[in-house]
Records
---
Amino acid sequence: MMRELQTWQRKMMRRPGILNRLSKSAQDKINSIIPEKVHQVITTTIKQMIRGVLFGAKLTTRNNKTRLALIETDRKVEETIKKYRTTAAAEGAITGAGGILLGLADFPLLIAIKIKLLFEIASLYGFPVNDYRERVYILHIFQLAFSSAQHRRNVFMEMKNWDEKSKSLPADINQFEWRSFQQEYRDYIDLAKLAQLIPLIGAPVGAVVNYRLIRKLGFTAKMAYHMRKAEAQP
């Protein structure tokens, strides 16, 4: 278990390779062409969407007061990830089969599924989801799973020794860096999700892509909370 965590941590710290840098450079070029007002609208939309989902997930997720051995908690987490993978795959297949309009609806639906999964995993590991600092940590996990290699490395460094760093967090979630959050997320999933809008192949593509995105997010969250627990040990 510790070896798996160490392997994951080394991967998070890995510097971007040449292909990753070229891809990121091309995406940055595209983003520079998009008018600033469009970026502002997208940032505001995603910020409000995420804040709404965070609030809703907080209300519907119970803080877990039962303390289990880590291996038993991991088993429950894996069961939860499996459940959400199935839900996301079904949602991707349905919206993918519905053409462009339903395909566009997949974006907010998938975000809601992802955030709710993260809340449940946090609760299973015993972290209070009604704590503002834990919800910010959840947003960091989200970024860790769906960002470029360079941004991922920066986010990972912010998450190290979180219990200490979180004490200096701003009191208002509006001060979270929403611009980079939405841009990195869009850049990461754009190519994968565009194929979902194509007739005939949209349904299978939507199912497979959503399944893989949830699988990656679930594993990232599992490792992130393992890291928190390892850091808390004397």
Note: The chain has one domain: 2-30+37-232.
---
Amino acid sequence: MVTSQKYALITGATSGIGLELAKLFAKDQYNLIIVGRNEADLSAVAGQLANDSIDVIPMVRDLFNRDEVFSLYEEVKRRDIEVEILVNNAGQGVYGEFKNTDINRELNIIDLNVAALTILTKCFLQDMMLRNSGKILNLASIASKVPGPWQAVYHGTKAYVLSFSEAIREELKDYENITVTALMPGATDTDFFNKADMNDSKAVQDKDALSDPADVAKDGYEALMAGKDKVISGFKNKVQIAMSAITPDSTVAHLMNEQQKPVNHD
């Protein structure tokens, strides 16, 4: 019998950081709404996460499509579910020099990383404000703090996510029971690089240097529950961002170019 009354909604919940976050919420007795594009994957994850005391509701949505993002919120309302925690985890990148990459794919990524996140935040935040209760976790990245040659659009979208999260957090300071937290991982061992066609990048050749998505999720979960504004996951990433803050932007961009260009690029 489902005993929990608390609901968390997680986008991109079928793998990687999103799945690891879902496991943490389930462990803490949150009912889950898990969102993804693949019905079979969602069903498998729902079966993996469900237990006697929590409900796991899979909702199939293509978050590249703004109409489907709005319909996700409408379905939650139609079911009369109160979402206490919103996790905007879904996101993708595309690899390559901007002059060569597919503009339609990049526009789709902007729709997913920026538009979908903004729509869901707006919709669920307005409900949270009515009851003065709720938490939002937005997946930013250390990419939000540095220019990213070979991933120019992705880095740009993550800069938006961080800036947006910090701005609305300040706007909400009078709502003491509502918090907005940005999670800023570095390169993590997920399917992100496959989807971005990025496996030739120098940045992902050393698999041992990639963060464990379970560790990233734990950092994000703890920061969210503590009501923190943001968290950089991993000591190495903290050092990189601290150094980039005191380095000229043009130098940082050059260093990132060297890190991210293909292995065989002269």
Note: Residues 7-260 form a domain with the Rossmann fold fold (CATH 3.40.50.720).
---
Amino acid sequence: MVSTTAIATLFFALLGLANASPIETEHQQVKRCTATISSYSDVATAVASKCATVVVNSFTVPGGKAFDLSGLTTGTTVSMAGDVVFTAAQWDGPMFIIDGEGITFQGNGHQFDGQGAKLWDTLGSNGGVTKPQFLKLKHSGTFSNLKVINSPRQVFSIGSNSAQLTVDNVSIDNSAGDQLSSSGKPLAHNTDCFDVSASNVIIKNSRCVNQDDFIAINAGSNIQFLNNYGSGGHGISIGSIQTGKTVSGVTISGNTVVKSDNGLRIKTVYGATGASVSDVTYSGNTVTSANKYGVVIQQDYENGSPTGTPTNGVAISNINFTGTNTVSVASGGQEVYVLCGSGSCKGTWDWSGLKVSGGSKGSITGNPPIKNFSL
């Protein structure tokens, strides 16, 4: 017969397990608690707390310092409850860092203000005062519902995620950077909304108003860019692809690009070797009033100054347009411009899903294997 004392001991032991604060994960423990960030001094403490939830209230990040959420415990949820202002300063950044596994970042409609107008000088990251890169995402999980304004230069840099990362419903507004300097150039420059050098990334339902690439995919595989809106920049880009970089398995679908220099672009660096772009599918995209090119694939890129002579060290294969992609260009633009190196554009290029209009027809050189489309 089991004694009353033994039964009581077992009961309280089970009760203790039920109320234990840590949630065991494969690598770490997440505590059933909430850490709150209301000032910059709270950031490191919140990360070290290992709490399952981190709430971010309104506060100001000092100049030259990062809002650093590196090392969050697996499964942490970060929830914005206020806006964050980043004090302008001359440094490289990034101004915000988040990493970890299975992290959920919920912006809840709040705002990050990069105070870029205090640093813009028309040169971006190409010179002038040193400007910080804004947001560095290195986590797997989700990042959603945040508004970002006035980035000093590149906005989202995505890399080093260990598993799938989904960016959903973010809004990037750098329209203030369109203001012209005394030389007639926009004050903001190199304000790419999304720079991707990672695999297993989905970016969807997001909005970008800027002065450079809507997205630039520089390396990685299994990348999806879905149902996004971009205005005022350089369009949707793969590249510029540098030596040793590989991009494969990209789906670009349901996006809208308006009032941008380019619509859909693949650019490889002049002289680059040991690199490739493969298996890219465009489906259901709309480009309106592209200023320079509707669709452009060039193998002569040199940071805004193409050489006009392509090289063939980067293989481009299997570039397809499916469904209906409607691309229009402004009166001074070209509908399609393709410049391939000798033998470097190969595989299947079925462009039956591409419809172009406006401007001049452009040109296709280098014998890319395009079928079901002609200028």
Note: Confidence is low (pLDDT under 50) at residues 1-27.
